[in-house]
UniProtKB/TrEMBL annotation:
Name of the protein in question: dTDP-glucose 4,6-dehydratase
Pfam families assigned: GDP_Man_Dehyd
Domain NAD(P)-binding as annotated: residue spans: 4-321
Annotated InterPro entries: dTDP_Gluc_deHydtase, NAD(P)-bd_dom, NAD(P)-bd_dom_sf
Molecular function via GO: dTDP-glucose 4,6-dehydratase activity
CDD domains xref list: dTDP_GD_SDR_e
Catalyzed chemical reaction(s): dTDP-alpha-D-glucose = dTDP-4-dehydro-6-deoxy-alpha-D-glucose + H2O
UniProt-listed GO biological process terms: nucleotide-sugar metabolic process
Keywords from the named record: Lyase, NAD
Family under the similarity heading: Belongs to the NAD(P)-dependent epimerase/dehydratase family. dTDP-glucose dehydratase subfamily.
EC number: 4.2.1.46
Length: 351
């Protein structure tokens, strides 16, 4: 099987590329513009494989997308390319409208033209997996869960742009019959995540004994899923997902931001002891505008219909992740070098 992955040099995309090439024996064509969030060294384990190809392209460029489809003739596409950082969407929404909305539209149109030219068996096999977030659903009260039919109420420019792209993707199924499947997932964590997001930023600051910023009172709740479990779910969609349907993925691991930061302190203290407990470095900072209180996923449809489940608890995954950042200094020093410095720009992250 030959899979076109967009955004494959990013955090989740690189996990999808590694898993497709190494575990599934698939051919992978990675199309990525290489923005600040990309890190080609996350693909080191598959670089050099005959089954892995890279194309530096912008998904907003229609001619380039036609070229990619016609040259590589993929059996399916997993679309992850996006601007993904909420705080950046607040200070500079234009790139989010461009890539997340116009880029997705451009890709859908290129995919539609390609799909219409496929043979009947090729069409039967073809899938367009559109990867999205639970943030499209907005904020939850204490006792509810996001289900696939939960109405969209996005709060940030990021989530609004993702919501728009989800609607476009499903409209291309309803109107043109393009076999689109939409996935909405909770916050991901794990190795190779750019250190502007909450977990890697906190781990690195804890390693370097820098202040550990927490928005507001730290009581905002997110559900966390290990990136490799998410990648496995997306790949399952290629075979088991039903065109025109939405699937929620989540880790059944709701934690407040303060809990997450506190747990990271304790794991870093255990694996990399220092003179003082890291918890003492937690610093509360003014809240993000429009900060949603709680996200929580009901992933029972994915459990039932795809046979998919997360394979690790949050505690196991977090300990593995801290251990990975401790042994991967070269990777994160490169990611942090010059291009982006979260502490200098005063940006935080809760995804
Ligand atoms: P990321 O920011 O780590 O990576 C995004 C990748 O897309 C980068 O490699 C970047 O270079 C590429 N890209 C950006 N604009 C592009 C363009 N115009 N053309 C081609 N490539 C472009 O993001 P991520 O965290 O890996 O998220 C991937 C997808 O999953 C996004 O669609 C995001 O909305 C969704 N998602 C993320 C999370 C999460 O917790 N990170 C959770 C749910 C859903």
């Amino acid at each position: 099987m030959r899979v076109l992955v967009t955004g494959g040099a990013g955090f989740i995309g690189s996990a999808v590329c590694r898993s497709l090439a190494l575990q599934k024996g698939a051919e992978v064509i990675n199309v990525d513009k290489l923005t600040y969030a990309a890190n080609p060294s996350s693909l080191a384990p598959i670089q050099g494989l005959k089954s892995y190809l890279f194309e530096q392209q912008d998904i907003c460029d229609r001619e380039a997308m036609d070229f990619v489809f016609n040259s590589y003739r993929p059996d399916a596409i997993i679309h992850l390319a996006a601007e993904s950082h909420v705080d950046r969407s607040i200070t500079g929404p234009a790139a989010f409208i461009g890539t997340n909305i116009v880029g997705t539209y451009t890709l859908l149109e290129a995919a539609r033209k390609y799909y219409e030219g496929l043979s009947v068996p090729g069409r039967k096999r073809f899938r367009f997996i559109h990867v999205s977030t639970d943030e499209v659903y907005g904020s939850l009260g204490p006792a509810d869960y996001f289900r696939e039919e939960t109405p969209y109420r996005p709060s940030s420019p990021y989530s609004a742009s993702k919501a728009a792209s989800d609607h476009l993707a499903l409209a291309w199924f309803k109107t043109y019959g393009l076999p689109v499947i939409v996935s909405n997932c909770s916050n991901n964590y794990g190795p190779f995540q750019f250190p502007e997001k909450l977990i890697p930023l906190t781990i690195l600051n804890a390693i370097e004994r820098k202040p550990l910023p927490v928005y507001g009172d730290g009581r905002n709740v997110r559900d966390w899923l290990h990136v490799e479990d998410h990648a496995a779910g997306l790949i399952t969609l290629l075979f088991e997902g039903k065109p025109g349907e939405k699937y929620n993925f989540g880790g059944d691991s709701e934690r407040s931001n303060l809990d997450v930061v506190t747990q990271i302190c304790d794991v870093v203290d255990r694996l990399y002891p220092g003179p003082a407990a890291r918890r003492s470095m937690i610093t509360f900072v003014p809240d993000r505008p429009g900060h949603d209180i709680r996200y929580a996923i009901d992933a029972s449809k994915a459990h039932r219909e795809l046979g998919w489940r997360p394979t690790r608890t949050f505690e196991q995954g977090l300990a593995e992740t801290v251990a990975w950042y401790l042994k991967s200094r070269a990777w994160w020093e490169r990611a942090r070098s010059g291009v982006y410095d979260g502490s200098r720009l005063g940006l935080l992250a809760t995804q």
